[in-house]
Amino acid sequence: MGNSALKAHLETAQKTGVFQLTGKALTEFPEDLQKLTSNLRTIDLSNNKIELLPPLIGKFSFLKSLVLNNNKLTALPEELCKLKKLETLHLNGNHLRQLPAAFGQLSALKTLSLSGNQLRTVPTQLCGLRHLDVVDLSKNQIQNVPDTVGELQAIELNLNQNQISQISVQISHCPRLKVLRLEENCLELSMLPQSILSDSQISLLAVEGNLFEIKKLRELEGYDKYMERFTATKKKFA
Question: pTM, whole model, 2 decimals?
C-alpha cells in the first residue's frame, strides 16, 4: 500500500477517531499511528499479516476498541495492559498461547474475543476484570476449566469447540454468569458439575456435541431448577 493511501487514512482517522485498515496484507502495525495516540478511539487492523504488536500500543490512552482479528500474532506486549479505557478487544484467529501477566489491569474491558487461538486454559488474568460481560474462548485447545473460574465476572462465557473434559465445580459460583457455552467438547456427563443446574445463576447452558445425550442431562438432579431460570429468562426477553 502506498504512502499516499496511508496518509489519507491517517487524515480521516484524525477527524473521526477511527482507524480502519483491513485486508491489506500489512505485516506490521503502522508506526505512523503514533502521531494519533491522543485522537484514536478505535483501531481495526483485521485480516492482515501482523505478527507483532509493538510496545507503542500502550500509548493510545483513549482507545476504546482494538480489533486485530485474523492476523499472525503469537504474543501480546505487556504495554497493551496500560489501556485503561479499552472496552472491546477482538483477537480472533491469531496464534496466541497466553495473555500478558498484567492483562487484569485492563479495568474497563467489557468484551473479549479470543476465538480460534491456541490457548490451553482459561487465563486466570480474566478473573480480575470487574466489568467483563462477554468472553469468547471458543475454538482453542482448552482441556480443563480451573478453580479460579469461580471469580470470573462475565455474563457470557463461550467455550465451544475446545477439548474440555473437566470443569471445576467453582464455575457455579460465578456471580454474574448467565450463559455458558460448552458445545463440541469432550465432556462426559459425570464431569459436568450438577451445581451448574441446581445452584448457579446460569440460565442458558449449551452442551450439545459432547460425550453424552442431551436427554440424559434432563434426568439429572437440579435440572428442574435450571429450567425455571431458563424459562424466566426467556419470558423476560419475549
Answer: 0.96
